[in-house]
């Protein structure tokens, strides 16, 4: 069997950084595709020229043609507009729906067996759209957001406790929006719940900073949104799939009754392997956490309903 092939759609900040991490970790060969002529080609060549220094033997090709993506194992879809200051993720809905819908239709023509991982915002709606457009089994279409939100949560806790970020295992559920649900009782530092380590008001402040985590970066950058932590998060998902690791990673997946939620994409811990979503982990949430998760899922459902024209 040859090396796995990952197509990254969108050669912008998230796409290019994702491609770079996949190459440097030697997870797969990469095809980087964008509508802008020259952009993916230039970034791909620049990355290949780093290979002698970095020592990786994986390859990247830049292209504007879907023919070159043929037989990809995984698509990471990052194409679209990013948020500007003051813009909500939902403002991006209609514009990015057109973009993502078009991409999925092209992508699946050449890769019938691929796994699709969406990154474009509004994330949960774009994932639903990608599933509909692809007509794939829902286990092969899921989105990246929860891992990023959990990574931010973990970092803020590590900062507060002055411990190593890798010692923290954090859990954020729900849609990728202002209603996301940080879950302190399942957030641990060296196995101990954070609720035993920090006072409640400090935890609530960190929860809120996590919900605002994307906006905090947008405010600094002014002309774009985060990409280092987002690309790390999506690459962890890609690796768990391609190496069939079965890691449990907070992901935006299609729910069929888990957590009492049905027929909508929403962020929950999911076991990711070579066939995609292997199972959903059902945590024993408090009534308040469960209510917050339902509110978040209903918001996603309302936004998906706005898509009827595009789907
Ligand atoms: O947690 C998450 N899911 C997210 C989501 C975390 C960070 C960023 N998130 C979203 O990813 C963000 O709100 C955007 O919707 C996407 C991409 O963010 P990025 O920062 O990479 O945006 P850029 O740098 O503007 O790159 C977008 C690229 C750009 O090169 C365009 O030319 C390209 O997308 N683009 C296309 N490529 C291929 N095909 C089509 N149709 C197309 N349209 C635009």
Describe this structure in words.
With 311 residues, the chain is an alpha/beta fold. The protein has 2 domains: 5-143, Rossmann fold; 146-305, Alpha-Beta Complex (L-2-Hydroxyisocaproate Dehydrogenase, Chain A, domain 2), CATH 3.90.110.10. Helix content is 41%, strand content 20%. It is built from 10 helices and 14 strands. It has helices spanning 13-24, 39-48, 51-54, 93-110, 123-134, 146-161, 200-211, 213-221, 228-242, 287-305; strands spanning 5-9, 29-33, 60-63, 74-77, 115-118, 141-143, 168-169, 172-173, 181-182, 188-189, 192-193, 247-256, 262-273, 276-280. The strands form 4 sheets. Strands 3-2-1-4-5-6 form a 6-stranded parallel beta sheet, with helices on both faces. Strand 12 (247-256) and strand 13 (262-273) form a beta hairpin. Helix 6 (146-161) runs antiparallel to helix 7. It is globular. 1,4,5,6-tetrahydronicotinamide adenine dinucleotide (TXD) binds next to helix 1 and helix 4.
Give a topology summary.
Blueprint: E1 5-9, H1 13-24, E2 29-33, H2 39-48, H3 51-54, E3 60-63, E4 74-77, H4 93-110, E5 115-118, H5 123-134, E6 141-143, H6 146-161, E7 168-169, E8 172-173, E9 181-182, E10 188-189, E11 192-193, H7 200-211, H8 213-221, H9 228-242, E12 247-256, E13 262-273, E14 276-280, H10 287-305
Parallel strand pairs: 1-2, 1-4, 2-3, 4-5, 5-6
Antiparallel strand pairs: 7-10, 8-9, 10-11, 12-13, 13-14
Helix pairs in contact: 1-9, 4-5, 5-10, 6-7, 6-9
Bound molecules: 1,4,5,6-tetrahydronicotinamide adenine dinucleotide.
The site of 1,4,5,6-tetrahydronicotinamide adenine dinucleotide has 36 residues, from helix 1 and helix 4.
